[in-house]
Amino acid sequence: MDELLKKLSALGFKNTETADTLVSDTEYPVTIRLDTTSPLLSAIDYGPDVTVHHKGACNFSRPENLVVLECVLRLLKKGYPPDCLELEKVWKLGHRGKGRLDILIRKKKKAFGMIECKTWGEEYLKERDNILEDGGQLFSYFVQERPTKTLLLYGSKIEDGNIITQAEAIDTSKLDGANSEELYKSWDRSFIRDGIFHAAAAPYFSEKRNLKKSDLSELDRDAGRGLFNSFAEILRRHVISDKSNAFNKIFNLFVCKIYDEDTKGPCDELDFQWKVGDSFNALIKRLSYLYMHGLKDYLAIDITEDYFSEYAEFAFIDIFNAESFEENFTVVKEVVELLQAYQLKYTSKHQFLGDFFEKLLNTGIKQEAGQFFTPIPLARFFLRSLPIEEVIQRTSSRNSKMFCRSFWITPVAAAIF
């Protein structure tokens, strides 16, 4: 019960004159009737104006219900009228199947937005993979309500009294087709970060904006595990069999992202992202710049442009022609979009980031014929045994910097060890 009360307090719920009832701090009140015997069965009352089609959303028996509650409160605070919100809207899918959408937003009685809510991290990223795979449930629902302007995947968590959210939207204005399969094929696989939940967005307004450094989310255990699984799903979906090469290329992208974060201020727009109106060639130029400068800054390696191939450093598959170019950089774009929202550079050791990279190393680097790799625990022991701090104290700052570069092969290695 204490844990639930902490989360409800973070959402803005306050005590009322009735001992077992809490009320939201929104203009339109949402109330909670606490069940001290079974806290997860505490009842959520969305009031008379919000339409609830299935009462399964009105308690905390499913972790996603807390996400739905937080999302509804956010919509109310954004200015969406309560009578435009419907929860657990049911549609018949196929001959026997049924689907229930978490939140439907209406505008003048017509569908405006569909929101699928997922718990933070692994579950969110799993549904994101499903959408990229075949459109997921959202595209099936969209067929039922074609006036819908935006489809949204939404996740949130409450940590140390703070609410952390993640949302990615799909603009339906460019989708075309008679069924979910055709609609999915017409989609360019791009998401709009935050969508209607962007801080500057007014009700019923969604516009794609480029990410700033201050927009990045910190990795936690679930997000790190989900990122690894999503990267593996991208490789599977694009039938990339050379896993060793693929993992080498993602480490090149990590160098780009870390350098980008390292050289940008909180209000600066990031270059490691798929930007508004972007193209493969524009993305390649930005990645090449970040990679070349990252190698120079972190490893003191000067790259001569005549000997640098911007295609080869990011080639998940061999590039022979326009078709293979499109296929390869579709993969690059998906990996960039997967990573772009998360912070990869920290001022101190980050356990979940280290776990994520170590899992990549364990999976991507395999012992092949004639190749033998030092086990990671032994390599960690070697690195931790080095008297780095003592050497830094005895040497000048310039020599210290070069010394650290000679041992920390990449920023990724530093994160792991």
Please write out the topology.
Elements: H1 2-10, E1 14-15, E2 21-23, E3 31-33, E4 43-45, E5 51-52, H2 63-78, E6 85-93, E7 97-107, E8 110-119, H3 122-134, H4 136-144, E9 150-159, E10 162-171, H5 180-185, E11 192-193, E12 217-218, H6 221-237, H7 243-263, H8 280-299, H9 322-339, E13 342-343, H10 351-364, H11 376-385, H12 388-394, H13 397-407, H14 411-416
Parallel strand pairs: 5-6, 8-9, 12-13
Antiparallel strand pairs: 1-2, 2-3, 3-4, 6-7, 7-8, 9-10, 10-11
Helix pairs in contact: 3-4, 3-6, 6-9, 6-10, 7-8, 7-10, 12-13
List the main descriptive attributes of the protein structure presented here.
17% strand; 417 residues; 42% helix; 2 domains; disordered C terminus; 13 strands; seven-stranded mixed sheet; 14 helices; alpha+beta
3D structure, described in words:
This protein has helices at 2-10, 63-78, 122-134, 136-144, 180-185, 221-237, 243-263, 280-299, 322-339, 351-364, 376-385, 388-394, 397-407, 411-416, and strands at 14-15, 21-23, 31-33, 43-45, 51-52, 85-93, 97-107, 110-119, 150-159, 162-171, 192-193, 217-218, 342-343. The protein has a 7-stranded mixed β-sheet with strand order 5-6-7-8-9-10-11, sandwiched between helices. The chain has 14 helices and 13 strands. It folds into 2 domains: 1-209, no CATH class; 212-417, no CATH class. It is globular. With 417 residues, the chain is an alpha+beta fold. The chain starts with a helix and ends with a helix.
